[in-house]
Design goal:
Lipocalin, mainly beta, 12-stranded antiparallel barrel, globular, 4 helices, about 325 residues, single chain
Length: about 325
């Protein structure tokens, strides 16, 4: 109960910042997004097994630098750039492989669930985008991951997960993420199609995830949008938002690689201040994404097939899942 009170109290602290959006009445505010990540697309049911997020990203905030809440923010307050804010709510579930077992599976990852709220600030130029994001959530039984997974499995007579008594204990989840993306000059072909390279780097600090990452996305197609690539799945299971409205429809394929140096991962290391199930994690991991994105005026839809290299030493093989993202700009 105490964690719920703290969670709600912190959320209230963001309300003055969100009042920025109300100052642009009658104008195009931005984008709603919906993201589903699930290993059912790969016909598996283990590790990161489900992630869901809904989010909203504002349009350019003309009075951004005049607001006392935001003008002191590092990395995302560059003059001459567009500035946006975003909010999102999400939920993620992690389980071991043999979910029918009721005993503690010591060599496999812990049962865990997290419900989180994220607030992001974005500085967007023609060739660069910076994102600073703060998140708060509840990890453990009060994320209700057990109830959600059992309910979903009951809908299609799936295997009943019996090991949730061994899940990670309740813990307040806090994190800060900084990410930068660049767009390199596009290469155009005679048929009008283009290829674009979008390198990125980022760091995350918090009791849930502490890491440094770098990588690149390559996309190829017609009428490439003016955004910074298809949404990538972050370490906590959430999808970042980069979609910006464009007047032309288009389609492109994309390939992305993201390498991480991981200092902490609560879904493998266990609870921060309490004894819990844990496994020996790998400190260097790689994510590989292959997908397609389609845009029809205000609507953008993308699907990616994601491969995670082994996250912990006793993990028998790589993990595969799919990510479906739908965005609507208004």
């Amino acid at each position: 109960m105490r964690l719920k009170v703290i969670f709600l109290f912190v959320l209230m602290g963001f309300l003055p910042v969100l009042s920025l959006a109300k100052s642009e009445k009658g104008k195009n505010f931005g984008t709603f997004s919906w993201c589903l990540a699930n290993d059912i697309f790969a016909i598996t049911d283990r590790r990161f097994t489900d992630g869901f997020q809904i989010g909203w990203m504002s349009k350019d905030l003309k009075n951004y630098r005049e607001n006392p809440w935001l003008k002191w923010m590092p990395f995302v307050n560059k003059p001459g750039f567009q500035h946006s804010i975003s909010i999102s709510l999400g939920h993620s579930i992690y389980t071991p492989d043999q979910i029918w077992r009721s005993d503690l599976i010591e060599e496999d990852c812990p049962y865990a669930g997290i419900f989180y709220f994220s607030f992001g600030i974005h500085s967007i130029g023609d060739l660069r985008m910076d994102t600073l994001e703060v998140s708060i959530g509840i990890l453990g039984p009060h994320s209700y991951a057990e109830q959600i997974q059992k309910f979903i499995h009951s809908l299609y007579n799936g295997i009943r997960p019996n090991g949730w008594d061994h899940q990670l204990k309740d813990e307040l989840a806090l994190g800060v993420i900084y990410e930068r993306r660049w767009k390199l000059p596009q290469l155009q072909f005679n048929d009008g199609s283009r290829i674009e390279f979008i390198p990125h780097m980022g760091v995350g600090l918090g009791n849930v995830q502490t890491y440094a990452s770098t990588g690149m996305q390559i996309r190829f197609g017609r009428n490439l949008p003016k955004d910074f690539g298809a949404p990538l799945i972050r370490p906590g299971g959430d999808c970042n938002m980069t979609f910006r409205r464009s007047g032309k429809s288009g389609v492109y394929a994309f390939f992305a690689v993201d390498g991480k140096a991981v200092l902490r991962n609560i879904f493998l290391d266990g609870n921060t201040f309490r004894d819990s199930h844990r496994v020996d994690k790998k400190y260097f991991t790689t994510d590989i994404l292959l997908g397609v994105s389609m845009r029809f005026g205000r609507v953008n839809i993308s699907y990616a097939y994601v491969l995670w290299t082994k996250r912990f030493k006793t993990e028998p093989k790589e993990h595969i899942f799919g990510v479906l993202n739908l965005s609507y700009s208004y």
